[in-house]
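Backbone-to-sequence.
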């Protein structure tokens, strides 16, 4: 839940400041929020990893989570 709240909060501020649609702002903020909250959402990222067909067999949640490529910058 933290990632959703934090992501939307950042997006609202970004939308207001730069006059971009909220959905675009959420998309811009998401990679940064995921990286920031990585230690809190490893189990969820592991589930996402399996959904996008990352090999998870024998890997810890943190290893799978870090296998998901998040854009380093825009």
């Amino acid at each position: 839940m933290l990632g959703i709240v934090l992501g939307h909060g950042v997006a609202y501020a970004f939308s207001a400041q730069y006059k971009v649609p909220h959905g675009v702002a959420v998309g811009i903020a998401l990679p940064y929020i995921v990286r920031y909250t990585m230690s809190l959402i490893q189990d969820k990222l592991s589930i996402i990893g399996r959904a996008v067909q990352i090999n998870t067999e024998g890997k810890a949640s943190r290893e799978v989570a870090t296998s998901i490529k998040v854009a380093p910058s825009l």
